[in-house]
Amino acid sequence: MDKKIVIAHRGASGYLPEHTMEAKAMAYAMKPDFLEQDLVLSKDNIPIVIHDIELDDVTNVAIKFPERKRKDGRFYVIDFTFEELQQLNVTERFDYKTGKQFYPNRFPKGKGNFKLHSLQQEIELVQGLNQSTGNTIGIYPEIKDPEFHHKNGKDIAKIVLEILADYGYKTKNDNCIFQCFDAKELERVRKELQSDLFLVQLIEHPEETKQLNHFATYADGLGPWYKQILDKKENGKWKFTSLVTEAHELGLKVHPYTFRADQLDDFSSFDEMLQVLFFEANIDGGFTDFPDKMVAFLAKY
Ligand code: G3P
Ligand code: CA
Q: What residues flank ion ligand 2 with Cβ within 5 A?
């Protein structure tokens, strides 16, 4: 865990629709350290690899099952069985209200033949490729919105931990990092569900940066938005918040999200963005939609 790591964010999602098997196979071939899986349960308790609890901004659910929307007009993964979910086509992410593609220069919306899949199917892809190629690429699952799952009578943490254990992911040495934005639930994963996996606490709100001492009582790492690390630029040089230093003092690794070559924000190139975060701010790894570019960047050092 001492080398700086590359996490393929939703697969090679800069090139193919996110969280499809095709995006995962392409990412695998780019040799990142981990492939990420966002997880939501189906009606029949299968963890589906998808970013949101809703289906209607990456699939054709509104056309295929128009009568299945809830009162709020949205279509939810949890309302469909795995068999029904497999009938949907997956496409490049779009705004479900306007139909507009989120990243217009990425894979064209509506093209190709992509499907949803389960956590088990993706683990079998990764473990199968590890066997056939001799690589040792890991998985980096995230349980999405555990509170929503509890309200719907489902314990996503417990179900996912059992599947991970069945496939041999039980301890910090098993090439699996388990992540969650919900701090109460991640603490429960360690203390009540007694997981020995490497746990990463994801954060997004400013007030969460003040709770590192508490996070360090159960987590092994921190997953902040990368902008929570940047402070300001002075005379052409970046100053940083104390987040990485404080996390490191507490023994927490820092894996920020999300580095996108087509969304550079305050940087003039992707390599400059990576140089500043990896080697000036001293992060330990990063989530990226472009794993090939981050792998190539780190290979230079
Ligand atoms: O899980 C870390 C990274 O994936 C950022 O979050 O919203 O893309 O799942 P999100
Ligand atoms: Ca995620």
A: 38, 142
Give the helix/strand (H/E) hosting 156.
Answer: helix 156-166
Q: CB neighbours of 294 closer than 8 A, spacing ≥ 6?
A: 6, 32, 259, 274, 286, 288
pTM beyond 0.90: yes
Kindly report whether the peptide bond that precedes residue 98 is cis, defined as omega within 30 degrees of 0: no
What is the rounded CA–CA span in Å between residue 59 and residue 155?
Answer: 25
In the set 9, 19, 117, 255, the catalytic residue is: 9
Residue 275: predicted pLDDT = 98
Amino acid at residue number 204: E
Q: In the chain, where are the structural domains located?
A: 5-299
pLDDT for 1:
54
| Domain 5-299 sits in CATH 3.20.20.190 | yes
- 54 Cβ below 6 A of ligand 1: no
